[in-house]
Amino acid sequence: MERPPITVVSRLRGLATRVSDRPSLLPPMHFARAGREAFGVAFGRFLEQTDAIAQSELLFDLLSAFALNFDCPWTAYRSHTPNQKTHKPPRRIPVIIQNYPHEWQERYFEMGYDIIDPIVKTSRQRTSALRWSDVYDDANTNEDERRILDEAASFGLRSGISVPLHGPHGSFAMMSFAQPTNHGFEDRAITYLELSALHFHRRVTHLANLSDIEQSSTFSVREKECILWTARGKSSWEIGKILGISVNTVNFHIKKVMRKLDTGSRTVAAIKAVNFGIIEL
Question: Residue limits of the HTH luxR-type domain (predicted)?
Fold first, then answer.
């Protein structure tokens, strides 16, 4: 079976996946001993460092280093196709960024496990993090699906959690964290890993949106002027008076901006234009 197409980022980095080989951008704090305060300190440091990063691969390195604090040497982020057809395609976010063992990656795609993976199936129906062990024990999981988890364990991924990441237009991604032991995850650890996954997903989606705009859209001076005055709360009539153009011309330029920013709302378009740095208030 051929590999699925990989867009934007492919991090098949498991050629030699030893814990000691992983970058240590956020030194492990051994939370089991450090107590409740250590969780917040390390998570706060993770947020602070990632906010200054504008590259998906570096964001993934920071996330992977943060996960080491919870004895998770393996992390995987992957976007999936929506369950149903949509009128608009999902944003082009990185499809695969992971550091799973290379041999398991090869086995997983060659056997077509990505199609029948019970973790993926369950995550599509969930909005919160789930333990792999719970999916394994679920009565709705069949033997073929359990075999995938058994094989993953034989490659060292003995326990894990996955975080569903649902987005607009039916887009769906999933972040997984895996351990080489069967000790499992405490609820507090799951909470922090889930928060880190949500933050990572938000950051890489934002970067992908910026990339899409830079690659496929250019904004004329008039478009920027119209959406700027929209962001300042002016109506089309008021903008026309300010710029010396007709209301129809104002609406024409605003609709072009809305189309380029993939929204049906002029207010949302104005917010996006500010957030993406297209205009400054």
Answer: 212-277
- Which regions of the chain carry the CATH code 1.10.10.10? 219-275
Question: Please, what is the end-to-end C-alpha distance for the chain in angstroms?
Answer: 52
In CATH terms, the fold of domain 219-275 is Arc Repressor Mutant, subunit A (1.10.10)
pLDDT tens digit sequence for 165-220: 988 778 899 999 999 999 889 999 999 999 999 999 988 887 776 665 555 568 89
Task: Please name the residues in contact with 88: beta carbons below 8 A apart, sequence gap of 6 or more.
Answer: 169, 262
Question: Considering the entire predicted model, what is its pTM?
Answer: 0.66
Residue 254 sits at the vertex; the CA angle it makes with 249 and 259, to the nearest 5 degrees, is 125
The hierarchical CATH code for the domain 10-214 is 3.30.450.80
What are the tens digits of pLDDT across the range 33-83?
555 677 788 899 999 998 878 788 899 999 999 999 999 999 999 987 666
